[in-house]
Design brief:
single chain; about 180 residues; 4 helices; 8 strands
Length: about 180
Amino acid sequence: MYRQTMLTVGLGAVLALLTARADEKANLKVDPGLWEVTSQAKVGGDMQIPDEAMANMTPEQRARLQQAVQGMIANAQQQHVFRQCMTREKLAEGFKTGDDSPSCKTTIVRNTAAELVVRNECAGESNSHTVTAQFKALDRHHVNGTTDVVGSLNGKSMSMHGTMDAKWLSADCGSVKDSQRVR
């Protein structure tokens, strides 16, 4: 489950590719409209299931869980393509990681016309994660970037390195209101 959370956080950072934080507008010089984003991730580390939970499972349950986690990792490591409608309003909203808890801190490392680097760190009693997202506007219609997620749960750690390439398709989003998976 924690791997899924980490993957969601990483992919969420990709979806927020052109934003900075709630109180700061991104300075990337890109055009609003319909963008096509291609992303892929590499996942490594330990299975994030507490040892005591694994000990309470039958061998069959452990095997099914391990198979499900391996399937999720394999899916995350495949190339994904989606279309994202980036309106002027979304660009002005700012970076949101989905975790507004007091244990999280978002830092704008760099916010220029050509590059945006955002770091989000969250720490709890038995878990923590750090997301570092870096996006470069190659021009007004092309952005590429990386997302690195490192996390731990009950002493087990995992990481995800994601890459993305986004290209502007048109000023009109057509039927895409937010985000739509293409493949």
